[in-house]
Amino acid sequence: MDYCLNENVKIISFTLNNKKVKAIIDDKTTLLELIRNVFGLMGAKEGCGYGKCGSCTVIMNGKSVRSCITKASKAEGSEIVTIEGLGGDDFSLDPIQEAFIDGGAVQCGFCTPGIIMTLKALFTENPNASEEEIKKALKGHLCRCTGYETILKSALLAKERINNNKK
Amino acid sequence: MIGLSPSRKDAFEKVTGRAVFTDDIKLPATLYAKILRAGVAHAEILSIDVSEAEKVEGVVKILTGSDCKDLYFGCCIKDMTPLAVDKVRHAGDAVCAVIADSERAGQEAVKKIKVEYKILPHVLNALSAIAPGAPIIHEKNGEYSSTPGFYPEKGSNIYHRYKQRRGNTEKAFSECEAIVEADFEYPLNAHCAMEPHCCIAQWEGNDRVKIWSSTQGPFVVREGIASMFGLNMSNVEVFVNFLGGGFGCKSDLIIEPLTAFIAKFVPGRPLKLKLTRKEVFTSSVLGRGIQGKIKLGALKDGTLHALEAKLYFISGAYADMGCNVVQAGGYVASGPYEIKNISADAVGVYTNTPPIGAFRGYGHPEAHFMIERSVDMIASKLGMSPSEIRRKNFLCAGKVNGLGQVITKDNGNLHACLAQVEKELFAAPLPENNEEFIYGRGIAALMKTPMMSPNASSGAYVKLADDGSVNVVISGTEMGQGLHTVIAQMVAEFLNIPIEKVFVSKIIDTQYSPQEWQTVASISTYRVGNAVLKACADAKAKILKNASLYLQIPETDLSFDGEKVYLISNPSIFIPLKKLAIGAVAPDGRAIGDPIIGVGSHICRGVESPNPETGTGNSAPQWTFGCQGAEIAVSLKTGKIKIINIATSIDAGKVINPELARIQMIGGMMMGIGSSLTEEILFDDAGQIKNANLNTYKIPTIDDMPEKYSVYFVETPQPDGPFGARCIAEHPAVSVPPAILNAFYNASGADICKIPLTPSLALAALKSKNKDKS
């Protein structure tokens, strides 16, 4: 049993990757535990457990959040999107995912889903985010492989493609 | 396909979150382990009381050191037990293991265990640990079972001393025009791979166990676990999926022995041990950590003539993972230069700190930090430029390195690497100093050899599917470096088939996958590549044989073009590959030939142990040369260093995938920048790490990106490398710190021999320099 509950349990309802779901949680359950251990969505990773590395990032009501330090109870009534919720059911990719492949932003891949989710939230809110704004958003993500160069390049490529698609 | 940059084989699953890492594996009925860490650096364990902890709901069992007395393990020096027995040797030592049905219950129980210690004096650095009267950390030092070639000094904390002796240093120093002497400090660093270590063990009988682990060395784990528990190695099945970064912290034996030991107490059940980020700092392995001394002498013409070097490694509480790091550091004490008189000692010292292990560069960054700074210091004394003195002394064809190996032109071209870095770095004039910033440029060269077990090998199978697509089975781990992609390129090139038709196995299973030493030492492109090419050649021969049987034409008259086998003299006579791949069927219905399975392996031959007295010998299988450079701005107000340009040129042999190679260089340089400017493991007075977290142990963020990364390659083919390729991955992290400190000297005139170059250290150096002037 990798999902352990104390006596303070309750049932919450929320939308996960566009589907309405219910789950039993307690007052200690984190959003990351809920996503990984109840719903089996393994794309969000635990890199530190205290909100520093960004590997666990998901989108809640349009904002990127650190699921490892977010209480699951906060999910009540919310809309959550994880990396598994990007792209289409036919394995088509979100432009950010595509740009990460084309721009060579992927190495070990452990930090990748979290970074993509932060950019998804950023570009959804502001498709014209400047390089400075992109860097500011990515400052909360640690990557030990890339030196960030291809991540930044891919983020800018994604932005360009998102804006071109709209025209 | 060689020299092109197709996109990564694993990119799709990584951007979609589908790539499986060890913690993503969920097995039915899994139990969880949580570990009580010592919290004190050096102490006798007087008593352990688990009675309250056992009452926590969900706790299955609690284990202590009395459960593993004499269960010593290790790859080189067997000085570790899964849990501390009788005493703890560093604050991260494992004291008790709680087995529980959830991590949460395990954690709660850990808090309720009461341990009584008799605190012993501790030592947190190498010089204190070798000082007279220092507390002895291992009473059994020198008695542990060990592979040959290590020289412990009984009754002391020195577990190994590698000595390199060439010429006559005493006489040589008397002949020198200039001599510099300096003390160096390269502190302990943490790897900070983004994926914390995770391992699952499941005993399926008293004689067999399965292990899933985030390890770089599944076959090393198999051997280690088998010998620890007296099992047939073939009964130990180790599985490896993707690794979320390695950098050495997942090589050798790290948490697998502990996990397998704990799991043995809950037979049949999968037992998962996942380190917290804090435990990754305190209780896996650290890297680097030396205190060193150099005396370097040069003749009037700039010839480096004599070197006395001492490298004392702050090796931590256990020697097993660090002993060869020490050895490697000693091999390259003289750097990429010919110095005819050398007396170098690399000393592995037990300290009450977490053990050091492999870390990108493996002893080489520490040694280069010392020699590359010293070379600049002596150049300045002789009035030579840093480039000039390097050119004068570089290893090149006919010169002899510290091990006594004669360098050939096939080893690579340091002069060309330096020329590329100089061209990049000195393309424009240095910005003028102003009220806010002073500017400087520095260079540092490097050489690196893969340190490995004498019979280190790789294996590969190449098997064809009915349609002629190819499965490649290898046991090199994919931890971000891009091995799967590079291997697929080699197969596509050799068999002349599209890369889309090549699938490289993702999961390693020691019972099905070919033998592989471990994925370390930057050597997989070279060694796995060679094995794969041999497997491809074997497959190709079998394809031709099948075709020959089918067409009734001698093999020598046939050729294979990736799609079909045809008669050379008349290409209209042919048979498509898909009719041959799993054995052919003749027009009359008879089966012809065999399914195509190509097998290949590569073993590095001729590597010998160094002479115990002189430390010389053919102990380095190959060398990679390179040069690095930095342009920096130093803020006069804050002391903060800004990296304007960081450059690397490596003689890579043939670059198989230029984009993967380029980003490998960039990532390595960024790691070097972290070591240079911010990264340092700090201890409190009790010997606990003060910054065992990612908030205060500062690895570079996107804000720390230099203004420019510059990457160049020289391509002097490695004669026995696949397509001429050689090892390159660790190298960009090797000489960044001396390049930056040399740039700081160039900017300020202050010689610093210690990293990280923090703002306060920089300001203090500027201040004392100004004092000198006034």
By CATH reckoning, the class of the largest domain in chain A would read Alpha Beta
**Fraction of residues in helix of chain A:** 25-40%
Question: On the 0-100 scale, what is the average pLDDT of chain A?
Answer: 96
- Percentage of residues in DSSP E strands of chain A: 5-15%
What's the CATH superfamily of the largest domain in chain A, by name? Answer: Beta-grasp domain
List low-confidence stretches of chain A: none
Major sheet size, sense and barrel closure of chain B: 8 strands, mixed
CATH third-tier fold name of the largest domain in chain A:
Ubiquitin-like (UB roll)
Q: What does the overall shape of chain B look like?
A: globular
Question: Could you say what the CATH architecture of the largest domain in chain B is?
Answer: 2-Layer Sandwich
Superfamily (CATH H level) name of the largest domain in chain B: Aldehyde oxidase/xanthine dehydrogenase, molybdopterin binding domain
* CATH structural fold name of the largest domain in chain B: Aldehyde Oxidoreductase, domain 4
Strand order in the largest sheet of chain A: 2-1-5-3-4
Multimer state? heterodimer
| CA distance, first residue to last residue of chain A | 50 Å
